[in-house]
Specification:
Chain B: Its main location: membrane. Chain B: Keywords: Cell membrane, Membrane, Transmembrane, Transmembrane helix. Chain B: InterPro entries: ABC_transp_permease, LivM-like. The complex is a heterodimer of chains A (about 270) and B (about 350). Chain A is about 35% helix and about 25% strand. By secondary structure, chain A is an alpha/beta fold. In chain A, helix 7 links the parallel strand 9 (about 185-190) and strand 10 (about 215-220). The N and C termini of chain A lie far apart (about 50 Å). Chain B is mostly helical and about 350 residues long. In chain B, helix 3 (about 45-70) runs antiparallel to helix 10, helix 3 packs across helix 11 and helix 8 packs across helix 10 (about 225-250). Chain B is globular, with a radius of gyration of 21 Å. Classes of the chains: A alpha/beta (about 270), B mainly alpha (about 350). At the A-B interface, helix 2, helix 3, helix 4 and helix 5 of A face helix 7, helix 8, helix 9 and helix 10 of B.
């Protein structure tokens, strides 16, 4: 079933299929008739100029926005009306364009929060903190420590995230998303505002996540070098419409994409 | 013994996740409990126990309740006194209407009634935040006190809603001396404080803090916002309700609805602001500050300043100093006494070296 693509990744079946999505806020058309799909294990990039509707697209995928038209099929099931927390239980995790960490909590607590859908004890058991509640807490702590090791942030695990530099905060946010063991990971500009080394680190983590855990990744990024390097397929949006879709090379040579980014001679 | 954690290595996650990971802290808290349970009843005078320690513990519990809601879950509330009133009046009704009702069960019933009312008045929090929510809880404050005064049913038709607490009896033992009441209150407060600490270090507490810090991200992670907020209202009101029942049964004996007015709500709010928002320990420090400071100032003024100042000034001096100190604290350390304590501990770990 699975084939090796040009990046050496085993890309599987389609796990997320978006069909004719249209999203409006009042009279403003954020997305118009957009269709694309995401295959298992691939890294799928969404690019486009500012205001093209990239973040709205992610918000549609994880249930924050509800498109007026179109169908979303995830793991073969058509999605009914849903709340964002239901997307989380189905295995969709995401990071945000502007860091959305819980500032008052430590790195450890932030990442532990990422596992919340997997914790089953009620508040009474937790108030007593005996038996099951304690066992559960410790089991999840172990999983979280794996994520902390993976992202190489052991030295800051007890630090409140508000005190961390920007690059590390981005990494913690990735950790919080990973802690949920998602099957689909949405990354909204994971490298915005980073310097070259931080970008390299982040790229390495993204590739490692994809490689080791087999996580499917949809990412929005403005750094074309990064996008062309790490992604398998790229969707290009402009003014809420899809203007290109394909491998990085296809997209690079697509006339419409070039016009959207560089402008057209009149 | 120096306050050092050098040499205390954690070899398991269980050891790392205990409430007091540093050995000196464990010894200190053990000592405090022993002193509170054994030494205080032997040495403290009746006045100290009745007028200072019991109200301090009860207010600590109420502050703890408000801290769960405001400090951890981030929902501002001005209705804590009203939830205390619900607890007190519900416990009174359970005791008065049900023959042979065990008093502890009546306290729990009072707490649960307060929790139910808390959920009801917490519903607006699903739509509104911050100051607007504070105003909505203000409605709870006024409505509940009004309802308890207006409808005689709540006070079993006593005149103007005044209730007189029934005698406390547990397993045939009568709690009628200040010391026995003090020990009862101490036990309840210690157990509930431990439960609160356990909740805030588990996933319930993390969900509350996540909603407080960034609700959109919390929802995307999989936290049910509505459930989390209403749970915070319920548990917070439960704590306030039990505190209210104790306020009536172990402290005042006779209370009227007006005793749970907005002033009391503000007092509890000041306690958590001064003590430390989002800190269990801060609730206790804040309650100690608010309960003890006026008494301390009273003594000071009476002993040293009676002759020097005209009575019209000295009687108001306490309020002025009190207000001044609150402003001073908010400027110097907006995160409250608990943060000062934290900073002090961090400094002490390195003392006498600066780094």
């Amino acid at each position: 079933m699975s084939e090796q693509n040009q990046n050496g990744r085993r890309v599987g079946e389609v796990i997320l299929d978006l069909q004719n999505i249209s999203l409006r806020f009042g009279g403003v058309k954020a997305l118009t008739d957009i269709s694309f799909n995401v295959k298992e294990h691939e890294i799928r990039a969404i690019i486009g100029p500012n205001g093209a509707g990239k973040s709205s697209m992610l918000n549609v995928i994880n249930g924050v926005y509800h498109p007026q038209e179109g169908r979303i099929v995830f793991h073969g099931e058509e999605r009914k009306k849903m709340e964002p927390h239901m997307a989380a239980t189905q295995g969709i995790a995401r990071t945000f364009q502007n860091i959305a960490l819980f500032k008052g909590m430590s790195v450890l607590d932030n990442i532990m929060t990422g596992r919340i859908t997997k914790m089953k004890c009620g508040f009474l058991e937790q108030a007593l903190y005996l038996g099951r509640a304690q066992k559960e807490e410790l089991a999840h702590r172990e999983k979280v420590e794996e994520v902390i090791d993976f992202l190489e942030i052991q030295h800051i695990r007890k630090t409140p995230v508000g005190r961390l530099p920007y690059g590390l905060q981005k990494r913690v946010e990735l950790g919080r998303a990973l802690a949920a063991e998602p099957s689909l990971l949405l990354l909204d500009e994971p490298m915005a505002g980073m310097n070259v080394e931080e970008k390299q680190d982040m790229c390495r983590f993204i590739l490692d996540v994809n490689d080791q855990f087999g996580t499917t990744i949809v990412l929005i990024e403005h750094d074309m070098g990064v996008v062309m390097d790490i992604s398998d397929r790229v969707v290009v949006l402009d003014y809420g419409k899809k203007i290109g879709d394909g491998t990085p090379d296809d997209v690079r040579n697509n006339q419409e994409v070039i016009s959207a980014y560089l402008g057209v001679a009149h | 013994m120096l306050y050092r954690e050098a040499g205390q290595f954690k070899t398991s996650y269980a050891a790392d996740q205990q409430i007091f990971p540093i050995r000196q802290d464990r010894i200190a808290i053990g000592l405090i409990l022993v002193v509170a349970a054994l030494v205080v009843p032997m040495v403290a005078s009746e006045y100290w126990i009745k007028a200072i320690l019991i109200p301090f513990l009860i207010f600590s519990l109420a502050a703890l309740g408000l801290n769960i809601l405001t400090g951890y879950a981030g929902q501002l509330s001005l209705g804590s006194a009203a939830f205390m009133a619900v607890g007190a009046f519900a416990a009174y009704n359970f005791m008065g209407r049900i023959e042979g009702m065990p008093v502890l069960l009546a306290f729990v019933g009072g707490g649960l009634s307060a929790a139910a009312v808390g959920i009801l008045f917490g519903l607006p929090s699903l739509r509104i935040k911050g100051f607007y929510l504070a105003v909505a809880t203000l409605a709870a404050q006024f409505f509940i006190v009004w309802a308890l005064t207006k409808f005689g049913w709540f006070s079993m038709d006593s005149s103007s809603g005044v209730i007189t607490a029934q005698e406390i009896q547990i397993l045939g033992y009568r709690f009628d001396t200040p010391i026995s009441l003090y020990l009862l209150v101490l036990t309840i407060v210690a157990v509930m404080a431990l439960a609160a600490k356990n909740m805030v270090r588990s996933s319930v507490g993390r969900a509350w803090m996540a909603v407080r810090d960034m609700d959109v991200a919390a929802e995307v992670i999989g936290i049910r916002i509505m459930h989390t907020k209403l749970l915070a209202f319920a548990i917070s009101s439960f704590y306030c309700g039990v505190a209210g029942a104790l306020y009536a049964y172990a402290y005042l004996g006779t209370v009227e609805p007006e005793g749970f007015n907005l002033d009391l709500s503000f007092k509890i709010l000041f306690m958590i602001i001064i003590g430390g928002v989002g800190s269990i320990m801060g609730s206790f420090l804040g309650a100690a500050f608010i309960v003890l400071l006026p008494i301390f100032l009273d003594v000071l003024i009476q002993d040293f300043l009676t002759g020097l100042l005209p009575p019209s000034i000295s009687s108001n001096l306490q309020l002025m100093v009190f207000g001044g100190l609150i402003i001073f604290f908010l400027i110097v350390e907006p995160h409250g006494l608990a943060r000062l304590w934290q900073i002090g501990k961090e400094k002490l770990r390195l003392w006498p070296f600066p780094h």
